Amino acid sequence: MPGQCVIGLQWGDEAKGKLVDILTEGKDLVVRYQGGANAGHTVVIGDEVYKLHHIPSGIINSGVLNLITPGVVINPPTILEEIESLLPRGIDVFKRMKLSQRAHVVMPWHTLEDRMWNQLVSGEDNIGTTLRGIGPCYADKVGRSFAIRLGDLIQPSFPDRVREIVRVKTKILAAASGGEAETLDAEKIITEYTDYGERLRPMIDDTTRILLDAVDADKNILFEGAQGSLLDIDHGTFPFVTSSNASGTGISTGSGVPGNWIKTIIGVCKTYATRVGGGPFPTELNNETGQHIRDLGNEYGTTTGRPRRCGWFDAVAVRYTARLSGITSFTLTMLDVLCELDEIEVCVAYDLDGKEIDYFPGNIDELKRVKPIYKKFPGWKQDVTGARSLDDLPTAAIEYAHELEKLIGRPIEFISVGPDRAQTIHVEEGTTLKDYLKGRS
Ligand code: IMP
After folding, report:
1. Cis omega (within 30 of 0) on the bond before 419?
2. Is the minimum distance from the CB of 13 to ligand 1 under 6 angstroms?
3. What is the CA(10)–ligand 1 centre distance, in A?
4. Cβ pair 208, 33 in contact under 8 A
5. How many CB atoms lie within 10 A of CB 262?
6. pLDDT tens digits, residue range 362-389?
7. Distance between CA atoms of 114 and 138, rounded to whole angstroms?
8. pTM
9. What stretches of 217-287 show up as alpha helix (H) in DSSP?
């Protein structure tokens, strides 16, 4: 049974958690393979709301084993807090989750560094990170000499390793801050993180082996991407990106599953676009319409509470990420949010220095200069939150969705009309929006 993956096609926050929750039904394993506590996934089931940062969205379903694999950076106090919030709700996380011994640990110096680098870079160049220490932790992973992996927390060499790293980091932080950096207390860190290691010990395992065994045993596996493809460290809007491979390119490296084993990748995008933090956003709406979308879509960060920047759907960007991530179909979320607008615009090409282009520029200065070329669509002006099948949707809404299919070049598989699991329309295999629309007219 080939693996199935869920990948964000924009700048994150595409409401992937809900789709993962739906697709978890019938799965044996759910795998989180990149990113860290910078992610925020909300799952709503009836009256129950689960806000997850670290733990895979599959945790809510009993009978599913959730893996956090080597490509993730783990923040022990944050994950423990999340575990403790789930236990009283009847979710036995210790039985349902395994953490890779190879995953890197976000240590206190990483959050200090994130804050410091953020203060040192001002204005337009500021990445506007989530300040969760993600970039500095991945930097130490690649740099190797000062990295700590989860399995190291429970090894006898851990205290000496912390003392050595604190000695070096203290010098770096003092130099960067002109001597004003918060001091790092090695002995306090050793005591705290040894305790975290002990509490996490029952879950620390070799997830690569578990995953490869599951592949050999033909298990049903779902891979849950965090952030979005445009935030990919190699292929996104660098340097305004996160520090992991947030596009489909990261599934294999982050989890350990062979790349050729994955056959189904479902991209997720909103009917409009949002972005948190700095960086170019060609279709951004700094006007009433942008505020209207923010209010109706409750576009405020799950992790940081920051208001998200809102804009029109950018089909040039999503066509790029759909191809990059190798998606086989996609899910359109937040269809309900556009329901009050008279007209909806979609960016179909860019003007770059007076020339029309249909590709997403790889250079950040060029991306800053592009001007969107829009196509207008009539709004549907109808509440769609109660829709449960295509029959319940207004024709203008299906036509809009079908236009996006044509622009992106992939079929729609799900349409989401609200946060609840039930507020989802499944476009059954064998049905196409094109044929459906023909049948309606
Ligand atoms: P970092 O991942 O904290 O280093 O932040 C780098 C950039 O990615 C910033 O612009 C963040 O706002 C953005 N980012 C990180 N995680 C998420 C996410 O889960 N959703 C949306 N944006 C994110």
Report:
1. no
2. yes
3. 12
4. no
5. 20
6. 999 999 999 999 999 999 999 999 999 9
7. 11
8. 0.95
9. 250-255
